[in-house]
Amino acid sequence: MRNFAGSLSRLTIIVLSIVAGGCATVDFDSPKEPSYVITDVDGTKLGKVALEWAEIHSDQTGVSPLPEGIDALGARLRLIEAAELSIDAQYFLMKGDTAGELFAGALLQAADRGVRIRLLLDDVFTTVKDDELELLDQHPNIELRLFNPISRRGLYYLNYAGDFSRANRRMHSKSITADNSMTIVGGRNIADEYFQLRDDGEFLDFDVLAIGPVVAEISDQFDDFWNNDRAIPVLALDKRASEKDLQTIRDQIAEEMAHELHPIYERAVNSEYMLELINGAAQFYVANAYLIADEASKLENPVGDEFMTVANELVAILEQAESDVVIINPYFIPQADGVEFWRGLEAKGVDVTVITNSLASTNHVPVHSAYTRYRKPMLELGADMYEARVDAVEKSSTADKLTLHTKLMVIDQRYIFVGSLNLDPRAININAEMGLMIDSAEMAQEFMADLENGVEARTYKLRLDERNKLVWETVIDDEPVTETKEPLTSGWRRFLSGFYRVLPEGQL
Q1: Fewer CB near the last or first residue (10 Å), C or N of the chain?
Q2: Could you list the pLDDT tens digit for every one of the 508 residues in the chain?
Q3: Domains (ranges, CATH) in the chain?
Q4: Residue 292, helix vs strand vs coil
Q5: Annotated catalytic residue: which of 123, 179, 205, 207?
């Protein structure tokens, strides 16, 4: 036994040595020039629109909802096309799919017009290849940085594991701003599933297009991350591209934009909403609005309450709720402290409603697994709980699966918070998040009216039966339906959900 233990110990030392030796780190001292938002934009088309808005509405913000994916894509493309001086965009992930190509093509065309492009992407889940990002970065008017990247030397995933305490901290923020005059903030990344471009599934998501003083707040937040030590120029990671390569990708994108991408582009930029926006008929809610955002320094410091700006400010606002709070979020893991927080709101007469994913609709089974611990406690304290029906896609949609990805709260049918924040420990404690707090009773009440019209048809309502067992209730084809196990799931998916309960909640 002693010999076996000694051999095992030596083997452990060898494995750890290989891991340590195989881990490569990023040079965070790579040279880069700081840059900041361009504020002298009054002469641009968007700047003039912003000035006209300010003359009429003073210090109030205009907010236009973007609940439809194709509208959200069209709004981004139109914003890029309208820019004359600058585009600042930051996203948690970007893929090299149709949406990614349309986005990259529009940025290249803007750069050709002389627009300064700053594109900041979180590294871990961005799947566009480095050499393709480097090609974009070669354009003299485009600068691309990766936030908190993993070293490209050696084995990528080994590098992630070897530097886990740093690499685990991610920028989850999402925004795009043109000429420091108009911005889009919300839950969508740059990938097909967020813009109704996939047949196998559709993400139900939500953004807002905004104009007014809140835009400057978002630009300042972008600068904070852009100039942070963890925002690394993509070429500092692996220099491989050549000038010839850039022309090749430009020709390729131009060819695709002219042919296979063109119908999608036309559908996006000429949707009913976009035409109303261009013609001045689209509705902008006039509201007091402000940005709530974690600072980049949150990701450089140990996890602690003092750095959780978004969570702390939201808690302070929610504590002032008087009548009702509606939470729409794909991932809901309140933990014990959160359950007590919601219990306190219910105890003072605030109705709490949670709408989240079902096991069938979620795209993260481990997160749903942790959430299942809190369904009964939330129901017992008096909250209304709903889960999305995976088959509740619109009849006009080509997708066959719905996944809820919206991150939104409505408080007292007056305040709306919309942004990147998931309600799980990772988002609250570990990642950096952002969102807009919008004070508009008109917008909140119209949103709630739309929600109430659709919630019964697109969700299951949870309740506890006389045996204290969960049941799921909905209406399908005007007939009431009751399920006694996770609806529309296979035995294997239910097994995985149970199996993943061994994972630590703090990382979900």
Answers
A1: N
A2: 444 344 444 444 334 444 444 566 788 888 899 999 999 999 999 999 999 999 999 999 999 999 999 999 999 999 999 999 999 999 999 999 999 999 999 999 999 999 999 999 999 999 998 888 988 898 999 999 999 999 877 777 787 788 888 989 999 999 999 999 999 999 999 999 999 999 888 899 999 999 999 999 999 999 999 999 999 999 888 766 555 577 777 787 778 777 778 899 999 999 989 888 878 778 899 999 999 999 999 999 999 999 999 999 999 999 999 999 999 999 999 999 999 999 999 999 999 999 999 999 999 999 999 999 999 999 999 999 999 999 987 755 666 799 999 999 999 999 999 999 999 999 999 999 999 999 999 999 999 999 998 898 899 999 999 999 999 999 988 899 999 999 999 999 999 999 999 998 888 8
A3: 61-278 (3.30.870.10), 290-507 (3.30.870.10)
A4: strand
A5: 179
Helix axes 130-137, 98-112, angle to 10 degrees: 20
Task: Please confirm, yes or no, whether 239 is among the known catalytic residues.
Answer: no
Is residue 122 part of the annotated active site? The answer reads no
Which residue out of 172, 298, 368, 401 is catalytically annotated?
Answer: 172
364 a catalytic residue: no
Q: Is the pTM of this model over 0.90?
A: yes
Told to judge if 368 belongs to the known catalytic residues of this protein, a careful annotator would answer no
Q: Which of 95, 174, 298, 368 is catalytic?
A: 174
Dihedral of the CA atoms 373, 378, 381, 385 (nearest 10)? -150
Say which of 137, 205, 407, 424 is annotated catalytic.
Answer: 407
Catalytic residue among 384, 412, 439, 461: 412
- Calpha distance 508→369 (Å, rounded): 10
- Does the annotation mark 407 as catalytic? yes
Distance CA 196, CA 206 (A): 12
In the residue annotation, 461 being an active-site residue is answered as: no
